[in-house]
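hi! just following up on the protien thing from before. the input was this:
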Amino acid sequence: MQPTRSNSPELNGPPRRLILRSPVLWTAAAGWLTVNVLVLAVADDRLPFDWPSTTESTPGGRLVEANVALAEVLLLIGVTVLLTRRRTRPDVAARAPERSVALTETLLLLAYGASGLALGFALARSLGWHPFGFHLAGTLYGTHDHVGAAEAVTWALYNLVVYAVLPLLFFRRRYSAEQLNLRSSDRRADALLIGVVLVVESAVQFAVLRPELFDLGGRQLLLGVPATFALYFAGTVLPAMVFLYAILLPRLLKLTGSTVATVVLGGLAYTVLHLWDAWTLFTTPGDALLSVSFLLLTYFAPGMMKSVLTLRTGNAWVHVWAYHAFAPHTLADTPHVVRIFRI
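and the predicted 3d structure came back as:
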């Protein structure tokens, strides 16, 4: 079946001119600038977070890193647009139901996602663990707290069932794999895009973040790399792919009629699902403001990138392989998993 061409002028018209005129784009840019200003206004000389894996803990230094990361995401978005410019892009909005049904399903999805976060908080805390969000405690930033194997496995299973298995079982009975962005319309073009984005992102990971992966021994690499891939594939990669990019994203596009708005909302939704990252602090208003600010600075841009990859290809699997499962998680978090499982 040939993919239908999108009716969105932002996809098929002169993209740069239309995108630059979008009020949503300028609102997002103003919001990003506001977050930067708030961090400088609220933070002391040192940030209060437990971030042993970061190279910089001063507010100014972390803001520089966050803005460099945003620039890299914008570069990757440009690469994605360049590589997909000649493709006939699927009409992702047409894969969602009519607006009234899409609105109902979207509201139910958001309520379900909030309930999943609340239950994950209560369940994990009752067991003496860190609250369950889309990242295991210690992911990306590291942690001085002990994270046990039981906590890691339970976290992965909880997220897999709540955000991937149950939503997919429900929606797959009503919608086809194509309607859920689970089928490629151009495998060769998808493979090229995945390869280019993965190479660029991996190179940035090595050059900027300097992952500890290659400080590990041979046995640790042999066991730790597949263990990390499996743990994070179950705990964050599949849940994000199914809940956000297979199900929610087409409905957001249907409701907004705007590619730019959908990309921004995809970034915000991805950020919210990381609310319980173990480093966040909500004990004081200042710490809460800083926590929300750095959640946005950390996850908003990657969430947008995943949205762009999905909308440009109509295939939610593309972001899984290009920009999630291998880089950053397997590259960055293998040392963490090696410590958790005492490999």
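The chain is about 70% helix and 0% strand.
The longest helix spans residues 218-256.
cheers
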